[in-house]
Amino acid sequence: MPWRRRGALSFPGDGILKVTVVGAGTMGRGIAQVFAQVGNEVVLTDVYEKALSLARDSINTSLSKLAKKGELKENPDTVMSRIKITGKLEEGADSDIYVEAVIEKVETKRDVLQSISGIAKPDSIIATNTSSISITQLSAFVKFPERFIGLHFFNPVPVMKLVEIVRGERTPDSLVRKCFEIAKALGKDPVISQDFPGFISNRVLMPLIREAILVLEEGIATKNDIDKTLRLGMNHPMGPLELADFIGLDVTLDIMEVLYHEYGDPRFKPPITLRNLVNSGKLGRKTSEGFYKY
Ligand SMILES: NC(=O)c1ccc[n+]([C@@H]2O[C@H](COP(=O)([O-])OP(=O)(O)OC[C@H]3O[C@@H](n4cnc5c(N)ncnc54)[C@H](O)[C@@H]3O)[C@@H](O)[C@H]2O)c1
């Protein structure tokens, strides 16, 4: 794939054109897709072969759906041709922006951010899609912490309008502003959060999911009635148990663990039922079973 600067194609100001997304799971593949949809050349990488082939299938399916609905400006193949899916992180050398989207574990993110730092330019932006881990803590793993920021996309990325921009202690205003513009150029509607675990979204959402699981554990209502209550009574498009299945129960558990550890507050303590489901391999939609069967 020829990497070339073509001026400010999608991003106001200075035309960020080469983007590397590390982690080709649920989030990484969606993030790669939205960057490619607005004209950028994207490298999508993962350590697991299977994740790479699943990512290719999932992006193809998503692009076809968007094209059928008339929501894609170009042919799906043209968008796909901008995404290089590879097991080799080095293919992402000298990117203008890196988005780390690997599992929600500090040690894994540390290793990945250190590897990214080894191939990035001094002025590359390095962003993390973490749902809960401190941006300031993660910034210690990159060479230039003043180029590091949280860009928290939502699932499914091509559909969800929100991006939470999270400012670490060493993130300058100029980078926050730039990322705001980048998110807008991707067709998103961003919000800005200070660096507190869970930011805005998961600080509010995780206690809700936790409480719904406790209502189930205590036998107060069935899972269907708990979800129905939030859907029909509070106008949520999905109930909290359905949403946890959609996020991934492993990801939900990891986020609760981080919040509980950081705040030490029992309102974030992971319920036993959640732990049991994860330990038995029932991770939600991605494994065809979680609170529900799919
Ligand atoms: N699932 C959601 O709804 C959601 C929403 C917003 C943010 N997030 C965050 O996005 C990140 C990814 O979540 P996900 O749901 O995509 O998880 P996922 O489990 O679907 O995907 C994670 C991917 O990371 C890969 N990976 C693991 N170690 C790696 C390494 N060393 N190098 C490269 N790839 C590696 C795995 O193979 C996997 O494909 C997490 O930080 C999560 O908290 C998730």
- How confident is the prediction overall: mean pLDDT? 94
| Helix count from the secondary structure assignment | 11
How many β-strand stretches? 8
- Please state the overall shape, judged from the principal axes of the Cα atoms: globular
Which regions have little confidence, pLDDT < 50, spanning 5+ residues? 1-10
The helicity comes to 40-55%
What CATH calls the topology of the largest domain is Rossmann fold
CATH superfamily of the largest domain: NAD(P)-binding Rossmann-like Domain
The H/E string reads: EHEHHEEHEHEEHEHHHHH
CATH architecture of the largest domain: 3-Layer(aba) Sandwich
CATH class of the largest domain: Alpha Beta
- Order of strands across the main sheet: 3-2-1-4-5-6-7-8
Radius of gyration: 19 Å
Domains, number: 2
Structural class: alpha/beta
* Strand percentage: 5-15%
End-to-end C-alpha gap = 38 Å
**Bound chemical compounds:** nicotinamide-adenine-dinucleotide
The profile of the biggest β sheet is:
8 strands, mixed
Topology:
Blueprint lengths: L17 E5 L3 H12 L3 E5 L3 H20 L7 H5 L2 E4 L10 E4 L5 H14 L5 E4 L6 H5 L8 E6 L8 E6 L5 H13 L3 E6 L6 H17 L5 H12 L5 H8 L1 H15 L8 H8 L15
Parallel strand pairs: 1-2, 1-4, 2-3, 4-5, 5-6, 7-8
Antiparallel strand pairs: 6-7
Helix pairs in contact: 1-2, 7-9
Supply the key terms.
single chain; 294 residues; alpha/beta; N-(1-d-carboxylethyl)-l-norvaline Dehydrogenase, domain 2; 8-stranded mixed sheet; 44% helix; binds nicotinamide-adenine-dinucleotide
What do you see in this structure?
The structure is a single chain. Helices cover 44% and strands 14% of the residues. With 294 residues, it is α/β, with parallel strands linked by helices. It has 2 domains: 18-194, NAD(P)-binding Rossmann-like Domain (Rossmann fold); 202-284, N-(1-d-carboxylethyl)-l-norvaline Dehydrogenase, domain 2 (Orthogonal Bundle), CATH 1.10.1040. It has an 8-stranded mixed beta sheet with strand order 3-2-1-4-5-6-7-8, with helices on both faces. The chain binds nicotinamide-adenine-dinucleotide.
